[in-house]
Model the fold of this input.
Amino acid sequence: MYGDLEGTNIPHMTKPSTLGELAQSEWGAPERRTRTVKDEMRANLLCRLETEQPIFPGIVGYDDSVVPQLVNAVLSRHNFILLGLRGQAKSRIVRGLVALLDEELPILEGSEVNDNPFAPISKYGRQLVEEHGDRTPVAWVPRAQRYVEKLATPDVTIADIIGDVDPIKAARGGHLLSDELTIHYGLLPRANRGVFAINELPDLAAKIQVGLFNIMQEGDVQIKGYPIRLSLDVALVFTANPEDYTARGKIITPLKDRVGSEITTHYPRSLELGMAITDQEAWLDRGGRPVMVPDFIAELVERVAFEARGDKRVDKRSGVSQRLPISVLENVVSNAERRATVNREKTIVPRVSDVYAAVPAITGKLELEYEGELQGADVIARELIRRAAGATFGDRAGGANVDDIVHWFDEGGALKVSHDERSDTLLKGFGVVPGLLDLVDRVGLARRKDPATTVAACELVLEGLSAERRIARSEEAGYTRVRPERQPPFPKSGPGSPFA
Done:
C-alpha cells in the first residue's frame, strides 16, 4: 500500500510518473489527496503502536517520561518544542521523526516546495498542472529529503527562513521582480509536506520569530514588500534550553502560544540508564585487540558525570552533557589500548589510572561557576574522579573488612604504581599488600585467574580507601599512610560510610 509504514514501494508495480496515473492509484483517493504531513505522521505512529514497533530506536531512559509526551504531541498533530540542557538527545529525537514519514512522497517534478500534485501552492506548480493536465510529470521524494533542520543564530535572516527575490532568476526568465516566479524559497517553504526543525529557538531574532509566526498563523509573508500566501503543510519542531525559553524577551508571546506541546527532557535518572546510554554511544570497537571494560570501571566513569551534575561549582544552567561519560570512556579505552600495544598484551582492559588519564575529556565539558574557576577545571576533574571511585568502591565493596590493608599502610607500607606497567607485573606488586587480592576476589570484583581485571579491581580498592581518607594518594609517592594530623574522623567502609 502506498504510504504505509514500511514504505511505498510495491513489488512488481511501477510508481505513477504522471498526474493522471497518480490519480488512478491509491494516492488518488480523496483522503490521500488532502492528507497533511501531521496526519501522515499520526497514522504511521498509530501503526507502530499497534504492531508494538519501537517508536524512537536508540533513545534510552525516556520510555516512561519523554516518549509518552512525544507520542501524545504527534497524535494531537501539535507543533512542539523540546526543552532541555545540552546532551539530552534533543536533536536525535527530532531527527528520529523522519521515521514517521512515508518512505516516499509524490510531488510535481521540478517543484522547489514539494508541491502536492493535486493541490500545488506555488505559481510554478499551478502553471505546470494547467499546461500539462494529466500528463504533468510526477517525481518521488524519499523521506530523508523531507526533513530540514536549522540552527538558530542571531545572523539568521528572513531570506534564510522564508525566501527572497532572486534578480538573476528574474533576468533569466524575463519576469518582473514582483512576479512570484522570481522568488528563491528559504528553508521553511522547502520543508513543505515535511518536518522543519529549529534548534535553539530563543537565539532566533525577534523579527524572524514574527515572520515564522505569520507563516504558521496566517500562511502569508511579505518578501521585499511583495505579499505571498503560502499554505504550507509543515510539522514544526523546536529545541531550546529551559533557561532561555522564557517570556523575558527571548521568545515572542504569539509564537510561544502557537507551540502545542512543551516537552522537557532530562539526564539519565539512574546510574544504570546512564551506563546503558554510554555503552550504546561510546566507540569501543577498536578493530584490533578485543576490549573488555570491567563493569566497575564503566560505573566509575558514569559516576563522574553524576558527581559533576551535583557539584555546586559546576554551572547548573549549562548542565553536564551525557557526552562527558561517552568521551571519557572512549579516552579511557584509548589509554588502555596504548598500554596494551606497548606491552604487547592481547586484551585491552582499562584501569582506574586510565580514568585519570582521561581528564582532558572532562575539563572541556564543564562550565564552572566562579568558585570552580578559581580552583581550575583540572583540579575539579580529578576530585570528581576520586569521589566517583569512592562511591563505586562503597557500592561494590561497602562493609568489607579492609583493616589489614589499612593497617599495612599505617605501619609505613607504601605502594607506588606504574600505570603503564604490564598487568602480571603489577599483580605481584599488589600481592605485597596483605588482604588486597583476597578482598577483590571475596567481593566479586575480579578473579585471580584474570590478572588484568584483578589489577583494575585492586586500583579501585585503593582509590576507594583514598577517597575515604583512610590511606593517602599522591602522584609522587603513590599510596601511603595518612598523616595523623591530617586524618579526619571518617568511619570505615560500611553502611555508615558516605560512600556505601
The first strand starts at residue 80 and ends at 83.
